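Box 3.1. Reading complex inputs
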Amino acid sequence: MIPLYARRRLTNRIIIGLSIAATGFGLLWLVMVLGTLLINGASAIGPALFVQMTPPPGSSGGLLNAIAGSLVMTGIATLIGTPTGILAGTFLAEYARGSQFGELVRFINDILLSAPSIIIGLFVYEAMVVRMGHFSAWAGAVALAIIMVPVIVRTTEDMLRLVPSALREAAAALGAPKWKVVVMVTYRAALQGMVTGVLLAIARISGETAPLLFTALNNQFWSTDLNRPMANLPVVIFQFAMSPYADWQVLAWGGALLITVSILVLNITARILAAWSSFKS
Amino acid sequence: MSAEIAIGRKGRAAGRHGAFGDAAFKTLTLAFAVLVLVVLAGVIASLVLGAAPALEHFGFNFLITEAWNPVTEKFGALAPVYGTLVTSAIAMLIGIPVAFGIALFITELCPNWLKRPLSIMIELLAAIPSIIYGIWGLFVLAPFVQEHIEPALIDTLGAVPGIGLLFQGPPLGIGVLTAGFILAIMVLPFISAVMRDVFETVPAVLRESTYALGAVVLPYARIGVFGGILLGLGRALGETMAVTFVIGNAHHIHASLLQPGTTISAALANEFTEAVGDLYLSSLIALGLILFVITFIVLALAKLLLIRLEKQAGS
């Protein structure tokens, strides 16, 4: 019996060792990626980055038009995606519990959640760019909105399901019609969770590049025309990083740092909100 | 009758108003739920319509042709499909054991106070966008792989007959192996998150009795673990920007993993806006259709397995 016990203890030690090594391996890359990003990006961050336009090759400049374009398209995507996602999520949580149709929507939504974003780009290209005859900021915003929706549907449904039925029943007993119960009681109870979902969805689309490549394209100049191609950070980073020009590569690092910091801030805010709401309940 | 009088006119009006509001609100939410299905239908329809000219022109040969020549307008999907499958396979080979180790450490071994911060840090790996991995891969990982890892691989494994074929040629840094490695890092958080959830659903009674017998909790969790792996695979197959940066974008199939290749998504990202001619564009969309079909099957399978697990845990 002793050798068996010793062998098991050895196996146990090996497995513990391996799993610690695996965790270290995972964390190592996080530190490496963020570290190099900070080192390379910091040198690019300066006032010029925020006040100058993207330069032609071989000269210095900033990312103002790209930053503005990203903000505009993310903003429009959020305005389209948030109500869409919340209403669809409401249907799943409040009207479709146990129904087959609800199961189907939930299933398809989860697949869209993980579907390659470049496919969404192709879809919007066919559906909007080809029809309109040109690349446009609208097409970019719609592509981003389509990527946001599944995230918001999912979190909205999950958060609404967490609201205790007793709350709904109490409101219904007071004579409130169901839609009022949902809007004035359930939404209010789940508000923080739903906001968390929207923030995570915005974080998700802030770095999305693939769906913008064939929709918003890119624009070297300042443009506020939503019917024309619009500059945006991810595509500018892609172009500049792949270019042979040192000035462009530095700007690409600066843009990359900018995007990552904003995504991390969004993520952390979302987490704090989520932790706060679970603490309250 | 008397009850009706008691409710009064005002009450009945409010009731009817409420019923109208209810129906309207329900229809509104239903419409947006239907919209989710419409998006999927739209994606399928646009891909099929866009791919039709290329598929009609090349027929089944499209799937088994390696050539990709915009000048002579000869296109085949074999090289990008091969690249997609091989990079994903490398990602799974590295990613699965590491994700398993992480999940095991977080659920079973690590002290309680470390659990949350550790989970959050691993999840942050998923929050970093693809393009950041791409730029990091191009400027940091690829040179490192070229200088240190690939020469070592060529000297050791490259000399072994058989698998040595996978490690031949000059160390370029850019290529299938580097792309697969970046994908492995990117799918880690997805796989380990599902595995972690699955391990945590193992009932305490079962866990304690298996401890008593000296066994592992794995058999119970097998379905869920497999679902998590498929979810990660679905991500790896469709990942675009990170791969585009480091794979080298060559429409060739090499036995060696150190050589440049391409994947479906990398080919789309690189060539789509520059594609001249209807047949070229249609061939690219056909690639997109193939990618969509593959990822749809993988993700659907993952989802079905995870649903089964949920039912099992619920019962």
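In summary: Chain B touches chain A through 87 residues (CB under 8 Å).
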